[in-house]
Amino acid sequence: IYAEATKKVRKPKPWKHPQPITIAQLRQMRDEFWDTAPHYGGRKEIWDALRAASEADVALAQAIVESAGVIVSNADLTLCYDERGLIF
Asked: DC-UbP/UBTD2 N-terminal domain location, by residue (predicted)?
């Protein structure tokens, strides 16, 4: 698991909603995700770091996850762990 800690963050592939949505609807969906995500487990500080990383450019995102102790399993941040092995 520790070998995965060195994986470099990369920009994810573009995502497309199955139906047309507005920018406001997309922002609301993102806010709802980040508001509810910590309730599924894990520490709030790690969720906050992942949100900051997801909203930053790739170089800053890398620095954020490294400083927060996030173990990046998938380079697009779709699968991450904290140092205790909790999945995010």
From this structure: 6-86
* Residue 15 forms part of a structural domain: no
Q: Provide the domain limits for residue 64.
A: 2-9+21-81
What is the reported pTM?
Answer: 0.80
H runs (alpha helix) in the chain:
23-36, 44-54, 58-68
What are the pLDDT digits (tens) for 14-53?
A: 888 899 999 999 999 999 999 888 888 888 888 999 999 9
- Dihedrals phi, psi of 40, to nearest 5 degrees: -90, 0
Other CB atoms closer than 10 Å to residue 82's CB: what's the count?
19
Is residue 87 situated within a structural domain?
no
- For residues 32 and 60, give the distance between their C-alpha atoms in angstroms, rounded to a whole number: 24
The answer as to whether 16 is a domain residue is no
Q: Quote the CA–CA distance of 71 and 62 in Å, as a whole number.
A: 11
